[in-house]
Design brief:
The chain has helices at 22-31, 48-58, 85-88, 98-105, 124-132, 164-174, 190-201, 233-245, 261-269, 313-320, 339-346, 378-390, 401-404, 410-416, and strands spanning 2-7, 14-17, 38-42, 63-67, 70-74, 82-83, 107-111, 136-140, 143-147, 156-158, 180-184, 205-207, 213-217, 226-228, 250-253, 273-276, 281-284, 300-301, 326-330, 350-354, 357-361, 372-374, 394-398, 420-425. The protein is of the alpha/beta class. A 4-stranded mixed β-sheet has the order 22-23-1-24, with helices on one face. Strands 2-15-17-16 form a 4-stranded mixed β-sheet. The chain binds ligand EPZ.
Length: 426
């Protein structure tokens, strides 16, 4: 396995180009299963997770080719309907093949994802929703066997809580159902909106994009897609926080600031200066002249979009360990998303966890000092990178395969911003 070595204490400055969104690319790749033909997806990030998803589809007979950031996917010869445990256990987003496979073939056999570092990650909303559309779902041996004779029938589906992939799976299932389907309390994340745009571009009839109520008029057939992946708002937020944490000033480009409403307000609340254009965000230090003054302690509570994103909770916590005050961080989406706390404490952070709440006591004066730490999940890993960049001395992060799931060209992008960072065999 590889580890990441960081010589910390250097400020990050300059520009970094944001890649396509991992959490949009994954559902949109699955949507190509819905209809035969050559689909085009643009601005697709080349990540461990997108490669895993493409391997899954390859096992089902789908052909694909990449030229730079353009993916051509031909699902004409789809000849399989199973997503095996070996693949699904490494990437729970594999469950996103469930809806499209049942819609295209009338059947699917998908392994239950099982838990991951951040929580149990059940898929009961996905299954209940499919059953409301007329699909028979049988759970046995850690797999869900879904099947239907004929077309799905539209229905009203209410989510007990907004589920991003639950909304996406049922959108893909319902677009060719008989009649009207309404998804209530649906997820409003921009990645769901990207899928709505792709499906409507294929001939689907979905209304309510960006709201918690999606209405789908079933259509008889769909055309192959030609669709661009939206910028990765979580990657953009991660780099803004990294630049801020190291006392630098910088700009993320090719992003969509309107997808980061909560983060930008919270960064402003710490005293940082944030400037937006329609495709860039610039962050400057509180007193603006390049001097990194201590940041104000600021509270966050993670919520479904447009609330503060859970995928940027660990990164903000790393920033707050450097503030001059106390911050209360409340994680309401996942039951175990504080795995980064113990690792941040090894770097000198002062954090107390009580259930779903972490209290961070800033250590602005003496800051953090480098140490050996271990990545546990994708976003926790990025908070360790941020802390390592800000810490004095050397930080070594093991198990960085977690990082490579969601951050394209991480070492190149950090190096271009002025970081001293490289990979070594662990
Ligand atoms: C998506 O996961 C993202 N993954 C996650 O990003 C993100 O953290 C999460 O949404 C929340 O924003 C992808 O889009 C591929 P949920 P998802 O269903 O869809 C509960 C990353 O780092 N729930 O919105 O799996 C669930 O337990 C990843 O990129 C059920 O109870 O999350 C959680 O508490 C991590 N039953 C809440 O809903 C269900 O059937 C929200 O989960 C489904 C979900």
């Amino acid at each position: 396995m590889e580890k990441l070595i960081i010589e910390g204490g250097k400020s990050l400055n300059g520009e970094v180009r944001i890649s396509g969104a991992k959490n949009a690319a994954l559902p949109l790749i699955c949507a190509t299963l819905l209809t035969p033909g050559k689909h085009i997806l643009r601005n697709v990030p080349d990540l461990r997770d997108t490669r895993t998803m493409l391997r899954l589809l390859e096992n089902l007979g789908v052909r694909h080719a990449r030229k730079d950031d353009v993916l051509t996917i031909d699902s004409s010869d789809l000849n399989g309907s199973e997503a095996s445990y070996d693949l699904v256990k490494t990437m729970r987003a594999s469950v996103l093949v469930l809806g499209p496979l049942v819609a295209r073939l009338g059947k699917a056999r998908v392994s239950l994802p099982g838990g991951c570092a951040i929580g149990a990650r059940p898929i009961n909303f996905h299954i209940t929703g499919l059953e409301l559309l007329g699909v028979k779902c049988h759970l046995e041996g850690g797999y869900v066997d879904a099947a239907i004779d004929g077309r799905m029938q539209g229905n009203v589906i209410y989510f007990d809580m907004p589920s991003v992939t639950g909304t996406e799976n049922l959108l893909m299932a319902a677009v060719q159902a008989e009649g009207t389907t309404v998804l209530k309390n649906a997820a409003r994340e921009p990645e769901v909106g990207n899928l709505v745009d792709m499906l409507n571009g294929m001939g689907a009839r979905i209304e309510g994009k960006g709201t918690d109520r999606l209405t789908i008029e079933g259509v008889e057939s769909l055309q192959p897609a030609d669709c661009a992946i939206i910028p990765d708002r979580i990657e953009a937020g991660t780099y803004l926080i990294a630049i801020a944490a190291t006392g630098g000033e910088g700009t993320v480009t090719h992003c969509n600031p309107s997808h980061l409403p909560a983060l930008l307000e919270k960064l402003r609340a710490t005293g940082l200066k944030i400037e937006e254009t329609d495709s860039t965000v610039t962050v400057r230090q509180p007193n603006g002249n390049g001097q990194s003054g201590p940041l104000k302690g600021t509270d966050i509570k993670t919520l479904p979009y447009p609330g503060y994103p859970t995928d940027l909770q660990a990164q903000f916590m790393a920033l707050m360990t450097l503030s001059s005050g106390v911050s209360v961080i409340n994680e309401t989406i996942f039951e175990n998303r504080f795995m980064h706390v113990a690792e941040l404490q090894r770097l000198g952070a002062e954090i107390q966890v009580d259930g779903h709440t972490a209290v961070v006591k800033g250590a602005a004066m003496d800051g953090l000092s480098g140490a050996r730490v271990m990545a546990t999940d994708l976003r926790a890993s990025s908070s360790l990178v941020i802390a390592g960049l800000a810490a004095s001395g050397r930080t070594e992060i093991s198990r960085i395969y977690h990082l490579e799931r969601g951050y394209e060209n991480l070492v190149d992008k950090l190096t271009a911003l002025g970081a001293t960072v490289w990979k070594e065999q662990d």
